[in-house]
Amino acid sequence: MAYVEKFKGPHALSGKEFTYCPGCHHGIVHRLVAEVIDELGIEGKTLMVAPVGCSVFAYEFFNVDGTVAAHGRAPAVATGLKRTTPDKVVFTYQGDGDLAAIGTAEIIHAANRGEKITTIFVNNAIYGMTGGQMAPTTLLGMKTTTSPYGRDVNKEGHPLHVSEVLKELRGVAYLSRNKVDTPQDVIKTKKAIKKAFLAQMNNIGFGIVEILSTCPTNWGLTPIESMKWLEENLVKEYPLGTFIDKVGDDK
Amino acid sequence: MSEKVMVKGTEAIGEAALRAGCRHYFGYPITPQSELTEYMARRLPELEGVFLQAESEVSAVNMIYGGACTGKRVMTSTSSPGFSLMQEGMSYIAGAELPSVFVNVVRGGPGLGDIQPAQCDYFQATKGGGHGDYRLVVYGPESLQEAVELTIKSFDIADKYRNPVLILADGMLGQMMEPVSFPEFKDLNSFVDHSDWAMVGTKMERDAHRVTSFNIDPYGLEKMNIKFQKKYKEIVENEKMYEEYMLDDAEVVIVAYGTIGRIAKSVAKMAREKGIKAGVFRPITLWPYPYEALAKHTDKANMFFTVEMSAGQMIEDVKLAVNGKKPVEFYGRMGGVVPTPGEIFAKLMELVK
Ligand SMILES: Cc1ncc(C[n+]2csc(CCOP(=O)(O)OP(=O)(O)O)c2C)c(N)n1
Ligand code: SF4
């Protein structure tokens, strides 16, 4: 019985069934964020901003007050939330299309201001919700519905390394790139998410965790193949690591 | 009400917002309203409020969205090109039913245009601008005293209907100086309680509040829209404002809003001196438009004469009100040119000949 109780998942999740495809990492990331919220005991004062993308329903999956921002605008909305209620914990949850294309200005300026918010950035190198179009993070040579011959550096430029761009900004208090395809990585990512929240709660600055993620549906691979593809291709282009950590080890 | 003080238009609106209880301003500089942004930058810290200069109007409007989600009184101001950028956010704000106050100090357009006073954003302000079936309450003040009163009212109306409200001013109103008296500061604890829907944290005592314009189910979204339309109908029934000036016996009804409405009063006086019975109908709410009040004058008047600083945008509403019963004439200047009373009068004389 206790086991069944536990399996229900973290309290910060509403229990509403996820809408993600089999093998998609959005669900794992949701669970980790919710576990962190539980462990930090902040569920009652957390406000979330869901993006436009496959995770548009995220505000229904969490047990916290939430809203949905226009495509890419989540960091600005979160800024408005935080500045009007500084005692709350505010986080955005964004895909790479949302954050790295239409919302580049908003994320750079929120990070640079050192806005006391937290961003969970899920990078699957493609637009999921709209059916697999090219994202700024799409790899060179990678075929998508809008780069059917493979992304060409002369036409579409280079994959955008968001974390490497943000690491130059002095307002950032915590920044790391992770993945969730192995149990060890899941544990590491959860720690990273916690730090990104602590960066905000300890009033140090902006916290962000980039999480490399799968999109089996639009990559045209099985969930297992997707994990392999992530390891062999995504990780090579986007090296994992902690770029900024002003939080330290003791809370 | 305090003693009268000489202030500039942009500052009058800013001070009025503060007295209305606005403690959160997000904006981006653009002529001819930058002094309003600057005024808030100076005054808000004095009142322990929040001023933040966004990186763009796109961001500013989304910060307003976030601020309004928490149920706080929030405001932004801009001028035409900036207002265009805010349209995305306006639609989301209207769709999420968030109380918020906007000021558009209109300048000549289209495009980058110039920085002179104009009324060429009337369509954008009153007929949408953003996507979807939504409405803003739009006020067009003619003087600084009226701007102060309407700014304060805007916050109450926004709260009452959970809807964005727009003050549509022009560069003239923004830049002129006039004596104004301000009301006392409102008690910040006296406002509509939004805790039944706002994002203030669950305290783990209730279900999560989900504030959004999103509804993936077409029947659900239609239901949402039906609710919006009901609210808009209520606003139409209760919130129309207009001024009638020398209209009792008027044969010519000059229709104009904002600072041109004020100029029109001088024109009506000039006409009366020449024995022409002219009066002015000045809509104060541009949405909801006071159609019925204007239509009443079709019985007595022979002619309606619309004057605008645009190619003719409000004239469509005047025609809707008059409904073909009497001729509706027009005089307009564009590009930020302000028509003089003499010029308008000359056109009027031509028309009545
Ligand atoms: C202004 C605007 N432009 C475009 C869209 C269409 N759109 C919806 S989701 C999406 C891509 C989302 O991709 P990503 O952020 O990577 O999230 P994912 O679905 O992959 O999780 C796009 C382009 C929109 N909703 N709004
Ligand atoms: S389309 Fe891709 S990103 Fe979206 S839910 Fe499916 S697998 Fe996940």
Automatic annotation (TrEMBL), chain A:
Q: Name one Pfam family in it.
A: TPP_enzyme_C
Query: Which Gene3D superfamilies is this protein grouped with?
Result: 3.40.50.970
Keyword Acetylation present in the record's keywords: the answer is no
Q: Print the keywords alphabetically.
A: Oxidoreductase
Q: Does the keyword Ribosomal protein apply?
A: no
**Could you give a single Gene Ontology term from the biological process aspect?**
cellular respiration
Q: Domain (Thiamine pyrophosphate enzyme TPP-binding): give its ranges.
A: 58-197
Listed GO MF terms = oxidoreductase activity, acting on the aldehyde or oxo group of donors, iron-sulfur protein as acceptor; thiamine pyrophosphate binding
Question: What's the protein here called?
Answer: 2-oxoglutarate ferredoxin oxidoreductase subunit beta
UniProtKB/TrEMBL annotation, chain B:
Supply the CDD domains for this chain. Answer: TPP_PYR_PFOR_IOR-alpha_like
Q: Which Gene3D superfamilies does the UniProt entry name for this protein?
A: 3.40.50.920, 3.40.50.970
| Keyword Oxidoreductase among UniProt keywords | yes
Recite the UniProt keywords alphabetically: Oxidoreductase
Residue limits of the Pyruvate:ferredoxin oxidoreductase core domain?
250-344
Q: Name one GO molecular function term.
A: oxidoreductase activity
Which top-level group of life is the source organism from? Answer: Bacteria
| Domain Pyruvate flavodoxin/ferredoxin oxidoreductase pyrimidine binding residues, every copy | 15-196
InterPro entries, sorted: 2-oxoacid_oxidoreductase, PFOR_II, Pyrv_Fd/Flavodoxin_OxRdtase_N, THDP-binding, Transketo_C/PFOR_II
Asked if the keyword Thylakoid belongs to this entry, the reply reads no
Q: SUPFAM superfamilies in the record, alphabetically? A: Thiamin diphosphate-binding fold (THDP-binding) (SSF52518), TK C-terminal domain-like (SSF52922)
Q: Name one Pfam family in it.
A: PFOR_II
- Matching NCBIfam families, A to Z? PRK07119.1
User: PANTHER family in the record, alphabetically?
Assistant: SUBUNIT OF PYRUVATE:FLAVODOXIN OXIDOREDUCTASE, SUBUNIT OF PYRUVATE:FLAVODOXIN OXIDOREDUCTASE-RELATED
Q: What is this protein called?
A: 2-oxoglutarate ferredoxin oxidoreductase subunit alpha
